[in-house]
Write a structure and sequence with these properties.
six-stranded antiparallel β-sheet, binds heme C, alpha+beta, 2 domains, 12 strands, single chain, Chalcone isomerase
Length: 429
């Protein structure tokens, strides 16, 4: 394991490289190529994670997000994707219309600047709407924006998604809003986009978090009973009409308030948060991914020891020889099984990552997780062996994981495998 000083050096030395990668390589689209997930999904029936994911995709129409393996990009029935273009496509698909909804369009409640609107809460929020604890990871809401209470077509949308168990005062929520391009109520770009990103910086921080962080803090910031932890108006399942029941009965019935892609992951993407990731690893969905044929000694400069790497369909598609060297799309993910010996059959630990936005932001927009044996002295870890668990913005995900992975593909010493770039060292073809 490199020292944190060396990691920081690597980060500083190579940090700009990943974000300099082109992001528009169409050949990297996971829809392309015969090596896509379709060839991989056959026989996957044993995995409960994969099963519940497929079942989550049964409504409201036959367009099943993720049938191409790009669930993180497309979102799920209970979770918007992140990134403006992906969010717009997901909104257009209408999944959120199955969520617990206010019965009708209403004037905004103070201190809302959102005008006439109608709010939809996903199952994570609606099933916990009576409580006061922080919302679980995966909490999401959609607010349809209207010009008038009698209109039938929204003129814009506000969307948020909680990405980690700790709200971090709004920083760990994804925020998106689009208003009419003629709107003068909020600053927006040429497409009407007011905010599009985590609440760490820019308008998501200054506008959205700037007000939503006060939700439930006092009477003036409690327009609706139960508002707290960034959420002003939680719509409970009981408030909703038939739409909620429709969502519950549309699939297998296995779906519960917490059994959504944000917390259980999908067949192609891990969830975020250590406990969620461990359950997802145990479910074995990643074993259907493209994998190296066997356990091997780590390739320099890897500190991971004996291991076997699995790449999801997003990376696999971009690893094709003709796919170019663009940045990986959102949803790129890999699992590395860690072993004590070449002949072992049971991993002693795992390293996992997931790209959460189109722009790697030099590793900050990737989620990083690693667990090693509790007896390991190779890397700093907690009492459970966890080395890293979080976005590459801070702590060990930044100093250890990003500190080295940011250099992937930057020179011969950091190219253990062909095609390595944009945080990925060994893309499995
Ligand atoms: C000045 C305060 C304020 C600002 C700024 C603000 N909101 Fe809100 N927002 C509210 C209030 C209050 C509600 C509840 C309104 C209601 O019930 O009519 C709300 C509702 C919402 C909802 C529906 C779920 C809920 O929590 O009630 C979403 C989604 C949302 N806002 C997203 C955003 C996004 C994204 C931004 C940044 C572009 C933003 N908001 C900026 C005050 C604000
Ligand atoms: C000193 C450099 C270094 C550090 C630190 C490091 N890695 Fe790696 N990692 C590598 C290399 C090199 C590979 C490819 C190894 C191979 O092909 O055998 C790799 C492979 C991986 C893979 C498999 C996919 C791929 O990109 O090849 C995952 C997942 C991974 N690392 C996650 C992590 C996580 C999470 C952390 C932080 C806890 C971390 N790594 C820390 C160098 C590093």
């Amino acid at each position: 394991m490199v020292s944190s000083r060396a990691c920081l050096f690597a980060l500083m030395g190579f940090g700009l490289l990943a974000s300099a990668c082109s992001n528009d390589d169409s050949a990297a689209n996971p829809n392309n190529g015969g090596n896509g997930p379709g060839s991989n999904d056959g026989g996957a029936g044993g995995s409960s994670v994969a099963d519940s994911t497929v079942e989550a995709g049964t409504s409201p129409d036959s367009t099943v997000p993720g049938s191409d393996g790009s669930l993180a990009l497309a979102g799920t029935a209970q979770s918007p994707p992140t990134g403006g273009a992906a969010v717009e496509a997901w909104l257009a698909a209408g999944w959120y219309k199955q969520w617990a909804a206010e019965p009708a369009i209403h004037a905004s409640r103070s201190p809302s600047p959102h005008g006439f609107n109608r709010i939809y809460s996903n199952q994570v929020i609606s099933s916990a709407a009576g409580g006061t604890s922080p919302w679980p990871t995966g909490a999401a809401a959609v607010k349809e924006l209207y010009n008038a209470p009698t209109d039938t077509t929204p003129v814009g949308y506000a969307v948020y998604l909680k990405t980690q168990a700790d709200s971090a005062a709004g920083a760990n929520w994804y925020w998106y809003e689009r208003v009419p391009v003629t709107s003068t109520a909020a600053p927006h770009d040429a497409n009407g986009v007011v905010a599009d990103g985590l609440g760490t910086t820019g308008t998501p921080l200054t506008i959205c978090v700037g007000c939503h962080a006060a939700a439930g803090s006092d009477a003036a910031h409690t327009p609706t009973p139960g508002g707290h932890d960034e959420v002003y108006t939680p719509v409970s399942s009981n408030d909703a009409g038939a739409s909620d029941a429709a969502a519950d009965s549309s699939g297998s019935g296995a779906e519960s308030g917490t059994n959504d892609a944000a917390t259980v992951g999908t067949s192609q993407t891990p969830p975020m948060g250590g406990a969620n990731v461990e359950s997802w690893l145990a479910g074995g969905a990643y074993k259907q991914w493209h994998s190296e044929p066997a356990i091997h000694a780590s390739r320099s400069p890897s500190p991971h020891g004996f291991n076997r790497i699995y790449s999801n369909a997003v990376i696999n598609a971009g690893a094709a020889p003709d796919a170019g060297m663009g940045a990986w799309p959102v949803g790129a993910s890999a699992v590395k099984e860690l072993y004590n010996a070449l002949t072992d059959t049971t991993p002693v630990g795992y390293a996992v990552y997931l790209k959460t936005q189109a722009d790697s932001a030099a590793g900050a927009n990737w989620y990083w997780y690693e667990r090693v044996p509790v007896t390991s002295t190779a890397a700093p870890h907690d009492a459970n062996g966890v080395v890293a668990d979080g976005l590459g913005t801070t702590g060990t995900p930044l100093t250890i994981c990003v500190g080295c992975h940011a250099a992937a593909g930057s020179d011969a010493a950091h190219t253990p495998s062909p095609g390595g770039r944009d945080e990925v060292y060994t893309p499995v073809q």
